[in-house]
Design a protein that fits this description.
Length: about 600
């Protein structure tokens, strides 16, 4: 939510900041702005409402150059999207400017106090108080002023400050919002996330809560809450150079859908280096802390949105293979309940970004109550990965499309490996069974490829049904979460109302919705509930519903009943969620495409939900 970027260099930083903002635009796209210390040594500010292109046009018409600057792309929380509410925000004197990601909860009290002290506010944002607080606290040292301002702030923030009195300096700080330092050959960067840095550098340092970082003289220095110096290791990110590029694809979402077979193959190879996947111990390459699973009695999976759907699938796998009880909870609900958590329990936050505010808060609460922790994250070095005892990285590479696709299937892969690992350690399945399950995973990329090869057929179905106002998605058993995921994908990028439902619950209410205007998407691949799902299709048809079935290639029974078929490869029931979600991702993509939606940046959404 909101992207922030900063750069200090001997060269002009403005093109770099704009490039960084382009990479961060998926975090927010209501308005954007840049502030830099220009050639005359003055603070120059350019802001525009709407997409980043509006800012780029403005800066093309009125170019600005400088060696130190900050930029922001906004997802509005306090104050409507408008130029006056766009970041950066300046203090009263106009010598310094700040960009902020997060929410300042006590902004109204501070605003009142600062106004009484003579500060003049221009925007309706919570963020502007930071600029005034830093300005009020300044006595010559910008880092000290920022630290003093932090004492007054309640809430979450990643904040960067530029000041024309210090033309070669940036200072920044964080509390509960992500902030990464990039170390380039001749310049230093600050960014909300790693993909925005990749074209400049792969060497990064993560800033922790309550720390202040000072970028000056080619050096990044980090200080703790009492001003003490902190040493921080530099981490090298090995994501490929074009990993965050769209390349020849029209949208990141389509690129990321198509990448899935290759990523899952590479992912398995990483986990079984130099050997066949069938012979590998599931999590042998994941460096988990000793004893993490010893005496374990239950698991609680916590996540939001698509990642929560991955957790729902994993419950089936872990309970069946490892015979351990699994709870799956929405982080936003979990964090405010009277929890029953202890040290015999492992809490598993599942998160692409590793920064989702609710999941992070839920993890912290569970840890406070004594639970063990194992994060399933995509972003290396993310806050959740650092704050958990163990991490299973999903190795999906940067996911830029706001609708999550490859992050989901790689989460499923990691969770499947976790289920197999627990089964192996607990002896609930034999080594031979584990080896067969691993072999099935090795075959998965082939099934994904075969399914994606039918994309044209899916596009035709999508176009045929794209005028519908509502969709119902039904699935059962291990594919019930896939029905939820199919509905979520459709609504978030096409803005068509869609509901996901467990097929067995249809008769308890949703069947009332069915008429000849309502396409019903039914996941009808073979498995223990196949016959029951066919009955659900019959029941929908009997009420005039138009059925789109996800079915295995060549399934004549389903083909005879459905109005349209989305064909998938013939994978086992247990692994079918990983394959069945692909045609639903494509269905959503092609419907949204046909309707001319902004697929990679759907309205009102942002990639990383770092505020509550
Ligand atoms: C949907 C989507 C969201 C995220 C959710 C959690 O396509 O992307 O529902 O899954 O915001 O985000 P992470 O996984 O980063 O915690």
């Amino acid at each position: 939510m909101c992207g922030i970027f900063g750069c200090v260099s001997h060269e002009d930083v403005v093109p770099r900041i704009l490039q960084g903002l382009k990479r961060l635009e998926y975090r927010g796209y209501d308005s954007a702005g840049v502030a830099c210390v220009d050639d005359r040594g003055a603070l120059s500010l350019t802001r525009r409402v709407g997409k980043l292109d509006n800012l780029l046009d403005a800066m093309r018409d009125h170019p600005v150059h400088g060696h130190t600057g900050i930029g922001h792309t906004r997802w509005a929380t306090h104050g409507a999207p408008s130029e006056i509410n766009a970041h950066p925000h300046t203090g009263t004197s106009g010598t310094l400017a700040v960009v902020h990601n997060g929410i300042i909860e006590n902004h109204d009290v501070l605003r009142e106090e600062l106004t009484a002290a003579g500060c003049s506010f221009r925007s309706e944002t919570d963020s502007e108080v930071i600029a005034h607080l830093v300005e009020q606290s300044y006595t010559g040292d910008l880092a000290v002023a920022l630290r003093a301002a932090m004492q007054r702030l309640q809430g979450s923030y990643a904040v960067v400050v530029v000041d024309s009195r210090h033309p070669d300096l940036l200072v920044a700080a964080r509390q509960d919002s992500p902030l990464v330092v990039g170390l380039g050959p001749n310049e230093l960067y600050l960014s909300s996330d790693i993909p925005a840095l990749l074209e400049f550098t792969r060497d990064v340092m993560f800033i922790e809560d309550q720390e202040v970082v000072v970028l000056e003289g080619g050096e990044a220095r980090i200080f703790g809450p009492a001003g003490e110096t902190k040493n921080r290791a530099v981490q090298h990110i090995d994501w490929g150079g074009d990993a965050a590029e769209k390349l020849e694809h029209e949208h990141f979402m389509l690129k990321e859908i198509e990448e899935q077979p290759r990523i899952i193959r590479a992912n398995l190879a990483l986990r079984a280096p130099g050997q066949s996947v069938a012979g590998a111990t599931p999590l042998q390459a994941d460096h988990l802390p000793e004893g993490l699973f010893d005496g374990l009695e239950s698991l609680t999976l916590i996540a939001c949105g698509t990642s929560w759907h991955a957790g729902l699938v994993a419950k089936f796998w872990i309970e069946s293979w490892a015979r351990l009880p699994v709870d799956v909870d929405l982080s936003s609900e979990f964090r405010y309940r009277d929890l029953l958590v202890d040290d015999k329990q492992i809490v598993v936050p599942i998160s692409q970004s590793g920064e989702t505010a609710d999941t992070l808060a839920a993890l912290r609460e569970a840890r406070r109550l004594g639970a063990r922790s194992l994060a399933v994250c995509n972003v290396v070095g993310s806050t959740m990965s650092r704050e958990s005892e163990g991490v299973l990285y999903t190795h999906a590479g940067p996911e830029i499309g706001v609708a999550s696709t490859k992050a989901f299937t790689t989460q499923l892969l990691s969770l499947r490996l976790l289920a197999l690992e627990l089964a192996a350690r607990r002896g609930t399945r034999s080594p031979a069974e584990i080896a067969i399950a691993m072999e099935q995973l090795a075959d998965l990329p082939r099934h994904l490829e075969a399914t994606l090869a039918r994309a044209e057929e899916i596009r035709e179905v999508a176009e045929r049904f794209s005028s519908a106002q509502d969709f119902l998605f039904l699935g059962r058993g291990v594919n019930y979460p896939i029905a939820l995921e199919g509905a979520l994908k459709l609504k978030e990028i096409s803005y068509i109302h869609a509901e996901g439902y467990p097929a067995g619950e249809m008769k308890h209410g949703p069947i009332a919705l069915i008429d000849d205007q309502l396409p019903v998407v039914v996941i009808a691949t073979p498995g223990r509930v196949y016959e029951k799902v066919l009955s659900n299709i019959e029941e929908s048809r009997a009420r005039g519903g138009r059925v789109i079935a996800v079915a295995q290639e060549g399934d004549q029974r389903v083909a005879a009943l459905a109005d349209a078929v989305l064909p998938v490869s013939d994978v086992s029931e247990e692994l079918s969620p990983i394959v069945n979600v692909l045609p639903l991702q494509l269905l959503a993509y092609y419907i949204a495409h046909h309707l001319g939606r902004d697929i990679d940046k759907p309205r009102n959404l942002a990639k990383s939900v770092t505020v509550e």
